[in-house]
């Protein structure tokens, strides 16, 4: 055997060893994890759900997380107004295939990203199963680019909301002490458990006049849930009615950014520390599960 053949043989042997056994760099490299996904929903409009969603997104971004807020109040979106953002594209452009989802993202405060739901888009208000499947498929790659995805749903239980509820591991249910809000919130909670028995649900009572009012409302919700369903969501806490929130809306700035010492900001900050948010992952990618729920 020639010297050259001997060297070639040794190089091939080393190549096979390197292929068989991972390098130190490969061993120490942590696998990339897909984003945690949390859905925020309410039974009816006017509960202040988007206030909670936008402030939570800002606070998590402030902590150093890569955060994406998806405004799925399709056709009636307002998260961009609450954040002072003027998106060039929205979910409608993504659903129609006009632009990739990554290119439709707008920059929000503290480095967070927003995917707007658009305003006045008929196709987004009542999308077909095929349109939603196309949209979910387009959104799927975003899960690899963020640590946390917050989905802000429109009021009620549209087809898109139910598919999201079937896919998520974690739901934040925002309601008010009013009877109608509690009733619609209960209906949403019941439906979420029907399509996803393993879902973790946390309840937030927003715009409460006092802790007593919040406590009484929670007892009504918990009592009905235990009586008719045999279980109840976890009570996360309450957010006081705070005039500072109206000022923050007018300024198009989250209350936790504009006035972090305000009562509402303190309360929402407590909501954002709800422990299940830190492990809101599913075994399969979120939007793969959502697509399966459409079938």
Question: Would you summarize the structure shown here?
Answer:
The chain has helices spanning 3-20, 24-28, 49-62, 79-83, 91-95, 122-125, 129-139, 159-167, 179-195, 211-229, 243-251, 255-258, 263-272, 286-294; strands at 36-41, 67-72, 106-107, 113-115, 148-153, 170-175, 200-208, 234-240. By secondary structure, it is an alpha/beta fold.
N-to-C series of helices and strands: HHEHEHHEEHHEHEHEHEHHHH
Q: Main beta sheet, described?
A: 8 strands, mixed
The residue ranges in which pLDDT falls below 50 over 5 or more consecutive positions are 14-32
Helix content: 40-55%
How much is the average pLDDT?
Answer: 88
Q: How many distinct folded domains?
A: 1
CATH C-level:
Alpha Beta
Strand element count? 8
Q: How large a portion of the residues is in β-strands, by DSSP E?
A: 15-25%
Looking at the structure, what is the overall shape? Answer: globular
User: Which structural class matches the secondary elements?
Assistant: alpha/beta
